[in-house]
Amino acid sequence: MTLAHILTDEQARILVEERRALAELRLALERVAMDDEDAASFDASLRQLDELFLLVVAGEFNAGKSAFINALMGEPLLEEGVTPTTQRVTLVKYGEKQSREAQSDAFEIVEAPIEILETLNIVDTPGTNAVKREHEVITREFLPRADMVLFVTSADRPFTESERAFLEGIRDWGKKVAVVINKIDILVSSEDIDKVIAFVRDNASKLLGMEVEVFPVSARQAAQGKSEGNDRLIQESRFEALETFAVRTLDEGERVRLKLLNPLGVGSALTEKYAAVVAAELDLLKDDLRMLDDIESHLEIYERDQHRDFAYRLSDIDNALLDFESRGANFFEETLRLGRIFDLVNKAKIKSDFEKNVIGDLPQEVDKRVEAVIDWMVESELEQWKAVMAHIEERRSAHEERIIGKVGKLQVGFAQDRERLLETVGAAARSAIDGYDRESESSRLAESVQAAVASTALLEVGAVGLGALVAAIATTTAADVTGILAASALSIVGLLVLPAKRRKAKTELSLKVGEVREKLMTSLRKQFETETKASILRIQDAVAPYTRFVRAERD
What we know:
Layout: H1 9-31, H2 36-47, E1 53-59, H3 65-73, E2 89-94, E3 99-102, E4 107-112, E5 120-124, H4 133-142, E6 148-154, H5 161-172, E7 176-182, H6 190-208, E8 213-216, H7 219-228, H8 231-237, H9 239-249, H10 252-335, H11 341-344, H12 347-359, H13 362-407, H14 412-434, H15 438-456, H16 466-474, H17 481-490, H18 494-554
């Protein structure tokens, strides 16, 4: 017989609605990567909806579970003993004749033509504290399928620590539980029995968070009384109250109600379990998003600070050119006058004086100041990679403490993907740091700037340095002093020509220096913008896989 044969129309409608809701829950749990054991438990509870009411008898070995079931059946179907005799999970169900068949090493079916089995199935489980630890594993795996659990404890050692731990597992699955205190016949007085009942009821109710039915019995006396027809033993066994509960209180309507609640309890337990996992992941992802935002914010500040500092460093180069222009103006003022008429006709001397006093160390100074800017740019990018690396290492530390430590086996895929991507980003940062050759980067930047300056001035770049190139451009016209001065010296109106030539020389020098300054600054700015954007893009590209993962997982 199946559950469908005993349902009313209203119960059948509720069952259809419940299956729909549980199917939706199953999909939701799949999306958060429910592990295989939990999936099997959930699916088993769903399959139970097609079967009769399942009463699972659990407890420590030697608590008398098998004896209790035999007493309930009224005949010795199951083996009893002082050692763990229940080697398998045993399903006791109705059959036209009594039989026993092992389905596997872990499961067997016993059939018997007993009236109570026509409306419910009973499961005997190995002891929760059996010497063979696989017994306990089998029992725990079977619990999610139970519609109700009768937990058997012994009057001589009621509510042990292992029983307490086992009941916590039952509570987590949201099962209906009743407690049977077996072997009350070994207690001396009714007062002792009442004390044990109060102790078990109080502890079980607190642990399970609900009032628990407690039945003190002597399965041995009940079985003996039934076999001998001894009413006194049956009365002393107190078994009748438990039989009344199992047969009458757990009537058809109550069994259907508990049957329908079974997968809901399992679903609720798994929902709470994985909601906690998701909450932990979301909390971690929130911190990851904060880290990514911190990196983006840091890059924005980095770019802003770079522009500010670059403007300051450009002014240092500009000052070198302004000093050159000032020296040139002073040179023309001092040289282009009538008192130096004999020097003016000496082209070699004038050229030598101009190179010495005006050009001076301009090439070296320009090179030094441009190199300082380039070194600063190279060092700034390296520092950015170090900052990214520090962020990544901080998050990996949080990953180890909060995902692996807190969640354990849950969400292994999430943890592994997150770790892999963190390692990818970290590896990119480490590679950028380890492979960052300051000297080659500086040379590359210097060559780029030099080529840019040369191209704007339509000059060839040879072996000369940037400073020599700048000096050559700056003095192409204005430094041709010998021609200017020779013409002035030969003029019979030298007094009138010299001031005009002096003004022209100063003007041409100023224009030329201004032109060079603009070309140099434009080239440096362009290169700076290119390198800064490339630096930021490299960091963003390195972080991008993890950014996508975090945002996708959060969604």
